[in-house]
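Table 4 source record.
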Amino acid sequence: MTIPDSAGCIDVVGCDASGLASLNPELRSLVERAQLVAAPSRLLAQAELAGGPGAAWISSDQPQPLIAALQQALAAGRAAVVLASGDPLWFGIGRVLLQTFGADQLRFHPAPSSLQLAFARIGRAWQDASWVSLHGRDPEPLALALQGRPPALAVLTDPGRGGAQAVRQILRASGLEAAYGFWLCERLGHPQERVQRLSAAAPLPQQIDPLHLVLLIAEAPAAIEPAALPLFGLDDGLWLQLPDRPGLMTKREVRIQLLADLALPAQGVLWDIGAGVGSIGLEALRLRPELQLWALESRGGSAGLIAANAGRLGVEPAGIREARAPDGLADLPDPDRVVIGGGGEGRSAILLAVLERLRPKGVVVIPLATVEALGELRSVMDGAGMEVKVAQHQAWRGAPLAGGTRLAPLNPVFVLRGERA
């Protein structure tokens, strides 16, 4: 393909970290024929060597002088080229140029973006990947993204705000180090590029190139020794998840509160309805090994997942069922303690079925996300003569910020507790 002269428009040419060496002959010819070449400071020396006789070279690091020079070149009919990193329209100079020049005055020639190169280097498809940019931003978007447990997350780091170290600190604060592979990708496309997977225990390299990003790739957490784990309050990243439904579990801070509100007896029957990955019921068994835990979850594949998590923790539920409440509760032994998660529109029917079977002095604990659900279920408990308590819990997790620590919020949760007389 032959690219016509740039008179009347500005050619915006993407390069990888190797600079002009990555350009094909046609794009290289554009630079050589240009009368004005703009480039970031790291590419300016290369641009000066490649430019034709009489060409002018300017830095693109400062937008205002760049825009003025490009406007003058267009008015004079001079060919202009702007060199950029990767895809100019993806967190690049392209957005700035489009704010001043019409699309008909710009021609974009993207190189592979840093994300494309990073996933290519580790050999992983990336159509399911998410991304977060920390350039000039607080770390809160990364903390929020991790709450959803994405299968793959690319983090565009800001070396001025901690770079890869900040990403690792946020991952650790989220309790998810065991759930993600940490890939450090530096100078992608350059002959001296470096891509390495770092274990949670491995220190970061002492020298990290400013041109770097981090890939967080979801992985099944490694085998664990139950005796080495804390008694309760396990990190979220230690739990096996279903790959197509990551993040559907009670977060650590809320889990700890629910276990306290259940006031677990030494013996008895515990129903965990809407058990998810089994986190609440299985931690209850670690606290009270003689309890009979019956876990109920309607999602396909959940029984095997809960059983696998039970094996990892060294506990044995009395039963695990893939079934919907209240129908799946019919032949279970009457409960002393019940925790209800999920339920949706059928939550009132589930609670009524539970209250019909709950033993004297029994306790029901329900975490809820909305005020409407709280009001609906509280009225059911009040109508059954339960002793009712309501609490709202909001937790924050520390994230690095400018040499200090900022608190990133988790979603607030209402906790409805009812105790039978």
